[in-house]
Amino acid sequence: MAGIHSFECKVKSITVLALSSLPLKINIRFCKCISWKAISLTKFGNEVRNIDELIESVYHNFEENHRDAVWLTDRAILTPYNDTVTKINNRLMEKLSWDVMTYT
Question: Whole-model pTM?
């Protein structure tokens, strides 16, 4: 499967454990002979409709568990865009009831 990129990860999530690391045999950017096929990700989890559902499915009970380092390291949301990361981080921070402090 030339379209799959290999990677190394130390996260213990179910998604990472289900993936295989496959070495690339050809450079797919220069090959015009590849027939692209859709890859079904349904075996990895549930479909969500928006960022809030995604956050809730990955970080359920975030308010109670956000200080538990082991709990946090067992969860990850991967996204290719930094603006999406910022949105997810901001939504998670909104769930916490902290006093906002600004340092100048």
Answer: 0.52
